[in-house]
Amino acid sequence: MPGGYRSDVHPPFPPLPTASRYVRSYEGDPLVAQYENPYIRVHLTDFEGLPLVDVWGEVDLGTLPHLQRVLDEALGTGPKALIIDLRKVTFIDSSGVGALIGAKKRLLPFRGELYVVCGDDHVRRKLGIMKLASIMRLHPSTEEALADAREELRASRPGQQPP
User: Fold this and answer.
1) What is d(CA 65, CA 20) in angstroms, rounded to the nearest whole number?
2) For position 49, which CATH number holds?
3) Contacts of 127 (CB under 8 A, 6+ apart)
4) Residue 36 domain-assigned?
5) What would the pLDDT profile of 120-158 be if each residue is shown by its tens digit?
6) How many domains, in total, are found in the chain?
7) pLDDT over 90 at 37, yes or no
8) Rounded Cα distance, 135 and 131, in Å
9) Contacts within 8 Å (CB) and 24+ apart, 124-128
């Protein structure tokens, strides 16, 4: 069938590798949760009192559930700020961008802010083209994102020390 989709030749999604694993750590461990498989690696850590999600590899429709699982874990406590480090992401499609927008929406009821760390690469260009810098804060390093988050938390809670 010319121009048609043949499911026997092009399956819709590659099967998940058998090496996939999700790990939840114990209290006191800086690594809170992690998900790893050959296509994506996602770690949630406590970064000086704020949740930090580190992502490596490809973020697309096939790997999105794994990223979403760790984002759900990070957003479950209703944080005032979430830092997502995408500097090691080699590819991101619209479903990955949608996950970032979804994370921002989940922060809104808590008056929370989303800080995205991305270098001068395809991720920053893609977010810039989509004009997403207006709804999330883009930074070149986790240290700058942390400083911005702390400043924002300090401004929103005068007289209280941010985490």
Assistant:
1) 12
2) 3.30.750.24
3) 97, 100, 116, 118, 133, 136, 138
4) yes
5) 788 899 988 899 988 999 999 999 999 999 998 888 766
6) 1
7) no
8) 8
9) 126/92, 126/97, 127/97, 127/100
The residue type at 158: P
Domain assignment of residue 34, yes or no = yes
- pTM (two decimals): 0.78
> Using CB atoms within 10 A of its CB, is residue 159 exposed (0-12), middle (13-18) or buried (19+)?
exposed
Dihedral over alpha carbons 64, 71, 96, 52 (to 10 degrees) = -130
Domain residues for 31? 21-156
Whether 16 is covered by a domain: the verdict is no
Q: How far is CA 38 from CA 42, 52, 66, 84, in A?
A: 11, 21, 12, 20
Look at phi and psi of residue 15 and say left if phi exceeds 0, alpha if psi is from -120 to 50, else beta. Answer: beta
- Is residue 28 included in any domain, yes or no? yes
Give 134's Cβ-side CA count (13 Å radius). 3
Burial 11-38 (b: 16+ CB within 10 A, else e): eeeeeeeeeeeeeeeeeeeeebbbbbbe
